[in-house]
Design brief:
The protein is mainly α. The protein has helices at 3-29, 32-47, 58-90, 101-118, 123-133, 139-146, 150-167.
């Protein structure tokens, strides 16, 4: 297929499905701006696919890609909100100097990497790992807090560390 006819197919695909996808995403996110951004990102993903012209069920395909992007956006916002809440509770902006925009974004990116590393682990494993790494709690302290044995906590933290090593 020559480049001109492929371009026409892609343009036709975009024109037939863009409005529907943007409307669907706007309803899901509750924001027309987010819907537009995610629609754009979805079509960028589709265009980067080698087999974009061979899509059999376009709406199902677009929905699958868009849903993943939407989940990532919501997860990022959740992490950002938690980070901002932690900064407020620690006194940033009042007693402590607020980090620069660059430091803020770098820290947020690091938090997103940690979140990705721990993704898929059971809640108790993540909780034990974060209590140990972020709060500096010992295994016996975590065990007491979670009402579990020290051996279980050791296994949980080892599992989380193994997961982090595999993601890197």
């Amino acid at each position: 297929m020559n480049q001109l006819s492929q371009q026409g197919l892609i343009q036709d695909f975009y024109e037939r499905h863009r409005a529907w996808l943007q409307s669907w995403l706007s309803r899901k996110t509750g924001s027309s701006a987010d819907g537009a951004d995610l629609t754009h990102d979805t079509f960028i993903r589709v265009l980067s696919q080698e087999n974009a012209q061979q899509i059999v069920e376009p709406r199902a395909y677009l929905t699958h890609i868009a849903h993943g992007l939407m989940v990532n956006l919501l997860r990022r916002r959740e992490i950002e909100h938690a980070y901002l809440s932690a900064m407020v509770s620690l006194g940033y902006g009042q007693e402590m100097a607020t980090p620069s925009p660059e430091d803020y974004l770098l820290t947020l990116e690091k938090l997103l990497v940690v979140d990705q590393m721990l993704d898929g682990l059971p809640v108790k494993v993540r909780q034990a790992f974060l209590m140990h790494k972020l709060n500096g709690m010992t295994y016996p302290e975590i065990a007491a807090e979670m009402g579990m044995s020290v051996i279980s906590i050791k296994k949980y933290i080892a599992r989380a560390l193994l997961q982090c090593a595999q993601v890197k």
